Predict the structure.
Amino acid sequence: MYSKNDVAPFPPMGWNSYDYYNTMVNEDEVRANADFMAKNLKKYGWEYVVIDIQWSDPDAGKMNPHVQYIPFSHFCIDEYSRQIPAPNRFPSSRDGKGFKPLADYIHSLGLKFGIHIMRGIPRICAANHTKILGTDVTADQIANPFSISRWNGDMYGVVHTKKGAQEYYDSIFSLYASWGVDYVKVDDICNTNMYPANPYSAEKEIEMIAAAIEHSGRAMVLSLSPGPAVIEKAWHLEKYANMWRITDDFWDTWPLLKAMFERCEVWQRHVGGGNWPDCDMLPLGKLGKGFGNEWYTRLTPDEQKTMMSLWCIFRSPLMIGTDLPQIDDATLALLTNEEVLSLEKNSHGAFLVTKDENQCVWASHGNGCPAKGMAINVGLFNLSDEEREVSVRLCEIQGVSESKTYSVRDLWQKKDLFPLQGDAELTRTIPAHGSELLRLF
């Protein structure tokens, strides 16, 4: 019904509750973040408001910081084995309304609404033999007790060959469609790392979920987590999903950020056409309140700019992980530079030009016709622990004409720098772990 490019023509950009709130976000907090996005970020392309894990658990967070996910917690579940919002945390969901009132409010702001789910069916439903909508099957009959998450004990996988399996997924996505959900992040599915010999063991559940979204009649972005995604299954991910994580959970440390250059290198040929390999969230500003240890991002200002530069030139989805109402001016400036963010919509074909232990150079092309002088974007990255020059000969970059004189523009500074001949060397002095984003035109 909907093509992948219709659903996600550009990398989705938004906010996700996890990095700051962990499992404990409530309705007032979601609304406050949506209000901030509508007022300050929407005009720059930010539009998704996503509630992450455990929204059906009324007791979420009560065992923090010792236990993140309460074992055998009593979720709020309807008569058909479907999780519904915990009313003590999301009061507008009472009386069977679900997330519809909250989604309606977010839509009224001109934004889009998303939720997180774990793949499979709640284990408590299998234990209680609860019903599956439209069938004579019960939850225990479609559950696979040998398919579980390594890090979250809430769910059993669903056996795709069992009667009622597709009907179960159809029923939950029909419910999400009735609420007005625009984006679903499905976890423990992109890499089922409980099973290292078969990390893509949930392949058939991905297919069932994609079919369920189509059957629902509502366009929804399908985002798969966690990573690292299996490159050998790129064809399958491209067929059934819009986004897939190319890393495990990404947090605010330089070693994790440096490792993302290799992740992007592996996935560079699979970006575009409604397919968006996902570098994970942007751990900026204040983080970790829900983990019991609130902190300000440990990334230096230069590392924060490097993260944004890589995510944007690669065209990763962008999901902000902070509490937006508390955002500081420096972080807001990072998230509202329209020239940098333009790469998400107005570039294509990002590729690694050169890389060694000390430096990395990425490039991409602006949208348009090469014969009419299409712009070329260049990302220069200093991977070393000290200030150094980062250099590249322009003729190494595909699409550069050696006979042309280019104007060089700094996208972060929003200013033109100097002219440069296409056969010359581009050299910039960059601080440790820092970067520059330049446009040649």
